[in-house]
Amino acid sequence: MIAGVDEVGRGPLAGPVVTAAVILSPHDPMLGQYRDSKRVSEKKRLKIYHHLCRHAVSYAVAQASLEEIETLNILHATMVAMKKAVLALHIMPSSVVVDGNRVPESMPVPTTAVIGGDDSVQEIAAASIIAKVVRDRLMRAYDFKYPEYGFAQHKGYGTKVHMEALNKYGVSVIHRKTFAPIAKLLV
To answer: CA angle, corner 128, sides to 46 and 14, nearest 5?
Structure first.
């Protein structure tokens, strides 16, 4: 029972980091077909997300809140959220594989970092899809609350449209004030 863990949202200027942990079934008919969420269209991601929700042995999602990101820094907040996702699984895996070059501290089971794991490890690719769909939904919800920023389109990343909105409307409560482009606006 291997759990794959990935995150979405470390780079944006706004919103939480979302992590997911997934244990796949060896009988999953899509096993071998999962890809990094960035390599899959939104329509196909949603289809895969629903498939995973039905067929994964276990999956869990966790977030690093804006407060955690601001207090701990983005890396440490992400690691905390990854550990929370693993601990939220209803079955404890025998091991965990995490996308990247670091693993969360004090994990309850052996944990390995896999650089490029979202392309090479099925469990990590599945986790990336779940995390991406959940974070995109959160950013669309923020778009309803703060429509002037266009979060539904850019998901909080520092696009030209987003930067223009920041210059026109200022910083919202979901912007990461310690990130350089936002910090510059607050001076």
So the answer is: 90
* Kind plus residue range of the DSSP H or E element containing 131: helix 122-145
Kindly state which CATH superfamily the domain 2-145 is placed in: Ribonuclease H-like superfamily/Ribonuclease H (3.30.420.10)
Burial track 116-126 (b if 16+ CB lie within 10 A, e otherwise):
ebbbebbbbbb
Cross-strand partners of 14: 175
Q: What is the pTM of this model?
A: 0.95
74 to each of 13, 15, 181, how far by Cα in Å?
A: 11, 12, 15
> In terms of C-beta density within 10 A (0-12 exposed, 13-18 middle, 19 or more buried), how is residue 185 classed?
middle
Block means of pLDDT (10 residues each) for the chain, 187 residues, are 97 97 96 93 96 97 96 97 98 97 96 96 98 98 97 97 96 95 89
